[in-house]
Amino acid sequence: MASTDRSTARADVAIIGAGLSGSCIARQLSAYELDTVLLEKECDVSLGVSRANSGIVHGGFHHNLKYLKSRLEIRGNLMYDRLQRELDFPFKRCGILVVALNDEEMKYIDHLYTQGLENGAIGIEMCSRERMFELEPKLNSDCVGGLHAPGGGVLEPYRFVFSVVESAKKNGVEVLTKFEVERAERANEHYTIHAADGRTVEARYVVNAAGLYADRVSSIFGAEEFTITPRKGEYYLLDRATQAGPQRVLFPVPTKVSKGMLVIPTVEGTVLIGPTAEEIEDKEDLSTNADQLAQILDQARKMVPKVSQTDVITAFSGLRPASGDGDFYIDISKKAPNFIQVAGIQSPGLTAAPAIGEYVKDLLKKAGCSLSEKSDYDPFISKLPRIRDVSPYEADALVASNPAYGNVVCRCEEISEAEIVEAIKRGHATLDGVKYFTRAGMGRCQGGFCSYKIMKLLMRETGMSYREIQKRGAGTELLQDAL
Ligand SMILES: Cc1cc2nc3c(=O)[nH]c(=O)nc-3n(C[C@H](O)[C@H](O)[C@H](O)COP(=O)(O)OP(=O)(O)OC[C@H]3O[C@@H](n4cnc5c(N)ncnc54)[C@H](O)[C@@H]3O)c2cc1C
Questions:
Q1: Which residue's alpha carbon is nearest to atom 25 within ligand 1?
Q2: Lower CB density within 10 Å: C or N end of the chain?
Q3: Which of 164, 206, 347, 360 to mutate to test the pocket of ligand 1 (most atoms within 8 A of CB)?
Q4: Mean pLDDT on 282-297
Q5: Does position 5 have pLDDT exceeding 70, yes or no?
Q6: Are residues 19 and 164 in the same domain?
Q7: pLDDT tens per residue across span 425-435
Q8: What is the pLDDT of residues 168-183, one digit of tens each?
Q9: Is 459 part of any domain?
Q10: What's the structural domain count of the chain?
Q11: Alpha carbons 333 and 114: distance in angstroms, whole number
Q12: Same structural domain for residues 145 and 233?
């Protein structure tokens, strides 16, 4: 990206929002001879909707193909194996079961099965009671049958985004964090985009991938008026020692507003139960509520009776950016020239994200953006060794090459000093940034033992004072002087 002076930069394409959608669009565009800039208001990527969700790569049977979200879900699902080879994130195609608890629910299973077949969901199977118990012995004995979608899987959404962004940066994308788009104007076929802190970016094309705030960003650019309503989903996270961990993701039969509350074996071995679905007004309200959480335990036990409150290590919530008609709104704006809307990206936005990248690249082409492939595009990034994933022999070699691999800082998740230092070097310089990059602080003690050690490493590696250490950006400073 060419800089015209210290604070103004010029790009072909500016993407607003570095969540799953914006990051996958940026990586897709990084394969072409384009100057692309990714603008994010937070201090790190993946801190919006993409931070807290179920992490499921869906199986392609929940929605009819008339919906864009369904078509992109099918395509996105198929792209994950290749992405896993090219990038560095854990992904497991563990499969999905939908559990019917009575004959009425079995009728809906029949509908989901037919829909899955029509959608081309690979290997989808209608299951008898016996087959369900063969696939998942921990199921409630009330189960009468269900659906098996072997193509579904699980991943860690933030690790995926970090990897995608690293790959995009390697291929020339400029990422500007703490860049909150506040104002924009258009002259001479270019938008000038103003950040709240006074920085500006000029761009010929703009992509609005601002998640919960896509409605605000659309109106900043004089594009379509619409409303994004947050729909909260609360979860409980269960320790990996739980007896309730299933082999596959377990769904109940869906309701009208959501896919219901699930039991999810996460890719890192813990178990998630939830989410709820509650329309709220405040786009920043990530609180959890005892009544909702009690419902989650209740619903999860209907599928797996062994779910126990004593296994709970934390509760959290995420907000779905819901639009009016429930579908994704991805299109060239009819009001603002060269402006692409990527809004209403609720579930299955994670599954669809790689396909959203492709789809938006094609929309840009349709809007007149010239796309010529880079001869030196490299889709691969190097995989960072993780001490807990390697054999004792490999661990020995790692420690010999860098003794910091031998210092385990987070005991619950077995994360070494070397991995934490690498996270900081890559710009994840808050406590949450380190947590999402490495998993340090995500285990049974939830950072009780390792947070202060990570703060000391942050100070050592960045030169920050303890007063400057933040949990997640400005206003979340953790320590003050004693009074
Ligand atoms: C509870 C829950 C469960 C889910 N489960 C699944 C699942 O299992 N599988 C699945 O496929 N999908 C799931 N989803 C959906 C998925 O999480 C979303 O579709 C996806 O994260 C949306 O990504 P995004 O990039 O569009 O939005 P975000 O991740 O919100 O990214 C938008 C970014 O824009 C930034 N931004 C906003 N305004 C501005 C501005 N003015 N200037 C600069 N930057 C700005 C934000 O800070 C944010 O980082 C779930 C969602 C929720 C909430």
A1: 19
A2: C
A3: 347
A4: 92
A5: no
A6: yes
A7: 999 999 999 99
A8: 999 999 999 999 999 9
A9: yes
A10: 3
A11: 35
A12: yes
